[in-house]
Every structure is written in structure tokens, then in C-alpha cells.
């Protein structure tokens, strides 16, 4: 008995060690005969990385090798299973969460200094008194100017824990000395709803740029506002919306679909099906709904369009959508990085998958836009290729197709003027924004007393501004730019950007949409009812 007691701790220790070893090998889907076997595929990768780390002739950053390996594996799965490196996780998380902690300014680096374009309405900087045109020179004693500062470094100096304070020194034109501000950092919304306003007396408009955690709350606020203004019809603009959280799309759809209407269902590799249904809580189940889509509307955008189309609930307007019907789940890899892995496919209420083929490789998959452009599909609905074997019928007898995006009920061709590639490029790269900022710098009081609505309805951009913008570009480019054929379009971009910098959220879209042929089509359909 004494012998047994003496060695009892040793026996328990061996048992626990064996349990840990077995637990590390255990997969709950493994069959018993595989339980104690090693995984040769995993061992092969681990051994290769170890050989490179310890025996390879040169010093190699094995972290980068792992990143390349992970990306290589995912590229052989599908186009939407992606790796998120550790250094990108914070940015990606902020975008999907819908907010970040900061001081609440939009800015750009102008002549080696942070120039405030606009203090975000009701944000910390606006409350402290910071205005558009201010230059932030120092933060907590650190200089924020100089040729070597990157935008990322500047942002880090301005960010910090929520409710922490940052002391700023600011140069303001006309003031004899630097101004001191103490700004209390707070949550800053990253708007996923760009605009919510009335197109006509009865037709409201909501522009959604992605489906983040905060999107439903923003959308509901916009919908409530429009209903209070008398909207009995709603346009949901999902153009260029790449998607996001599936659950948020379901929440938005619940506002429009009656109780127990099928929203979508998903199916995984084991054939498990999960169905999602609308509830009783919708506030716009009786009004007309229009959804705008284009070739860049993807994922959750297609869920919204597909559910409304298949339930004969809304009119889909525009061009064939992107064609992404795969559902990803984000999985932590243990070192701060993550992978978004495709875990199921989703299907619209009639049972169609709108995922387009990707069997010829990722490059062909992502280059399909150019295929659509060359085939003429973006100009002519007759050029849209459909597969009769993927034909489905809605409850009211409308024919819809699977196999590659949502085909709209009403086709609107691409607008070659307002969607001119050169102008879109200049907008994306910030040329219009920077030019307008510098023009406002000449006299920031020029628009004092002009209300937002008066500006939108009455302000006209003169020819002189078009020529000034042309000169501005020519000073910054080797090739000379002229806008002989696009004067009116350039004016619209300049006016829209002015509205954004002067009046904030939604003003850009409200101006820009005045020349939008898809918006014109919606208004015609609404007035024809």
C-alpha cells in the first residue's frame, strides 16, 4: 500500500500528460482508427518551415513564409476565402464594427501639415471648436508636420483610448498665434449609410455603402426620418456595395417583408440547411420598394435584392450584380491574424444560388468586369448570358435566374459620362477633394449664410473653376488633361465635393444624384404608379 501511495503522484502525472497529448491530436470528427495517427500534411508544412528557419543558408523571415503559404492555400479554395494579417486586423475590425476611437476630423496632408477638411458633426473636435481649414501642428507635444510623416503615423498620434484627452496646437489663418485645444477622444462613427433624403414628395432615398455592425441602426434612423417626411416609397441604393454581415442584411429585409416570409437559406458541406424568416416587426411592409444595383453590388447587397425580388416585394433596377453567394466566417489563427473561410453557400427564397463560377481561377474571376464590358452587357440587357437550367419562378410567376448575380427587373445601362473612368479615378484618388479644399482656403467665408438646401438647389459652378481644376491637375501630372467633352460632369463632381466639405453627411450624394440616370429611372417608375 505504501508503495502505491509513493508512486501515485507519478501515475497521475503520466496520465495527465497523456491526456494533454491525446487532446492535442483529437478531432471530434475523426474516426477511432485515426485518433492516434499523425497528420502527415500538417507535419510536412511544419517540418519545411523548421528546416528553413534552422538550416537554410540565409536568414529568412519565416513569418512572411507562413503568410505566403496561407495565402497560397486559400487561393486554391475560392476567391472569397482570405487571410487577414495581424497588422491589418485593427483596420478591418473598425470598418466592420462601424466605429473607431479618435478626435473626429477628416483631413489630408497639405504641404507637410495636417489640414482639417471638416470636423465631424457633433464629434469631439467640433465640440472643442476645431474648424475646416485648421492645421494641427502638435499633439501632446509631438510635432505633426514635416516631409517624413506618413498618414498612418499621424493617425496613431491622434488615436488613443476612449475618454483620454489630447492637447492640440492648431494654426488658424488670421489668428496671431497658435490656438490650444484639449480634445476628449470618443467613438467616431464610420458611416455605412451615406445619405437619406427625399427624391420627391413621396419617394425616399437611402444609400448604403456596406453592411457593418452599425448599419441597421443607421438604416432604421434614416428610414424613420423619411417616413416622418411623408415617404410612402423607398429607394435603397446598393450600388458599389461589396456586402458585409449577412445578419445585418436580414435585419434590413425584416423592415420590408411580412411575418414568416423566407429571407434566404444557407447550406454547408454536410448538407445542413439553416433558414431565415422575417418577423412581425417590420415598419415598411406596405410601401413600395426600389433597389438599385450594379456590377459591384455583392454578397449582402445581393441578399437584399434577391429576397425582395423572389418575394415579389420590390423592383430591382440597374445592372446584373457581382455574383457572390458564398458565406465566410472569420476564424482566429492565434497570433493576431485571422482567416475568413467560406463555410456555406446562401440561396435566395426561390432556391437559386447567385454565385458565379470560379473554376478557371481567381484572375479570371476578378477580371469578369472587363468581360461584361467587352461583351456589351453593361449597355444592353440582351447581352446578359442566362442558363435556362437555372431558371426559377417567384410566387407571382416572374422568371428569375441563378448562376451569376441578380438580374434586375428594370435595366439601366452604364452612364458613360458620369461614370467616366478618368473622372472616377480622380475622385477616388482625392484630386477633387484636395482641389476643392484649396479653393475654399482662398476665402472660407464665401459660403457663409448659404443654407445647405439653397446650395444644392441654386449654386452653380462656373467655367473658371473647371479651368482652374484642369490647371491644378496639369501641375501634378506629366500628361496634360482637358475636359472639353466633360465640362458639365466635372462641374457636378466639383459641386458635389464642395457640398460634402461644407455641409457634411449626405450632401455629396444629394448633389451628385441630380445627374444620375438610374435615379431618374426610379423617379419615372414612381410617378407612373
UniProtKB/TrEMBL annotation:
Gene3D superfamilies: 2-enoyl-CoA Hydratase, Chain A, domain 1, 2.30.42.10, 3.30.750.44
TM region(s), chain numbering: 7-28
GO cellular component terms, A-Z: outer membrane-bounded periplasmic space
SUPFAM superfamilies to which the protein is assigned, alphabetical: ClpP/crotonase, PDZ domain-like
Domain PDZ: 81-159
Keyword annotations from UniProtKB, A to Z: Hydrolase, Membrane, Protease, Serine protease, Transmembrane, Transmembrane helix
GO biological process: proteolysis; signal transduction
Keyword Coiled coil: no
One MF annotation (Gene Ontology) recorded for this entry: endopeptidase activity
Family assignment from sequence similarity: Belongs to the peptidase S41A family.
Protein name, per record: Peptidase S41
